[in-house]
Fold:
Amino acid sequence: FVKYQSWFDFPKLGRRFMDLQYLPYQFGGQQNILITGRDITDIVTAEKEAGEANERFRAVWNSSGDAMRLTDGEGRIVMVNDAFCAMFGKSKEELVGNEYAVVYAPERQEESMTGYRTRFADRSMKEFMELEVELWNGKRFNAQLSNRFLTLPEGEILVLSVFRDITARIAAER
Structure:
């Protein structure tokens, strides 16, 4: 059989995207073709809109000057943007799939992960705070941090953490 998909103009329905199948067969010694068609306009339109929404999200995510991170209930990094990698001194490959505490000073990593899992489980994550951050490489800076729980359409719950370096502001206030 042959499958064909294209846009068609119908007098009463307007422009519709059709999925057509052509199946040759013989009946009574004659060669025939069975043609079936299905209107998949809504599916094609929804896929196009989802793709455009994903592109808009990626553009915002990748162009943000704020460092952004998504983590799951176990504290594993699901996604980071380029600003996060620059702020914390690690590549996406070093971060995604690993525990989020890998960016912090080694002596604080275990405690940080335990606290995260507890706060995630009881949904007691602080929404906004200012803190001094000590990184894996000894670098220190002051950060403004906001956390939000996100529930994805499939039910998965993640935490979006947004970091802003406020070291200069803190120094100016002193």
Q: What stands out?
A: The longest helix spans residues 41-63. DSSP finds five helices and eight strands in the chain.
